[in-house]
Amino acid sequence: MNSLLCCPICGEELSREEGRYACPNGHSYDRAREGYVHLLPANRKHAKEPGDDKGMTAARNRFLSGDHYAPLRQALCDLSVERIGCEGAVLDSDCGEGYYTQSVFQALTGAGKSVRLAGIDLSKPSVRLAARRLPEGEFAVASAYHLPVGTERVDLLLNCFSPLALEEFKRVLRPGGAFLYVVPGADHLWELKQVLYDTPYRNKEEDIPYEGFSCETVVPVRYQMSVKGEALADLFQMTPYYWKTPKEGAARLAALGGLEITADFRIHVFRRV
What we know:
By secondary structure, the chain is of the alpha/beta class. Helix content is 30%, strand content 32%. It has a single domain, classed as Vaccinia Virus protein VP39 (Rossmann fold), CATH 3.40.50.150.
């Protein structure tokens, strides 16, 4: 069976076979028990275990599974259904554990669309969870800066809070293909930052034109969420603040039983020109 993925060494399209992926030039990649494949060559690894570790992956999976970000997920589903035809190919770049990936796939197929979907992430623990969450998709350990996907193969590309690999995104998207780029709004997690830092700052918001893309719209998603108990600790661990917060700030957060927090997102909707 032909794959949406391609060989990271020679660029040829991969075929899915029993227990492995293979390309016409003889390169072969074992499929893990969960169904994902490792397509990150050793010379492109900048760490022994790149990407989010098991602890951060588990924390994010628990938090998202509690549907604290469900309004964002729904907005992504709605935009995806509106921007892909009766059939097409979807790529989730830095898909994490597959929370948004799974929902977008289900929304598209539920709308009667025939789609192929692939997700990539540097983190093996994340990709393992994503493959379990959505067996119908293809998942690979890979870098967004060297996407194992052929040129102009993708109709819809998702990128949520992840590195902006514009040249690769432009390469894999077909002309007219949609690109949904999720970034935090100015007030995202503001109350959490007030606890963690003595002088918190708001996120900078920018509308930057990107060469090769036309901007259709920016969709705001903003609401208040009540985060309690273990979910509050998980939210902290899944953010960059976890590595940057002084001990005093982390202690203040740990002493709280819960917190009302602003969720503030911006979904930038682009088209490949």
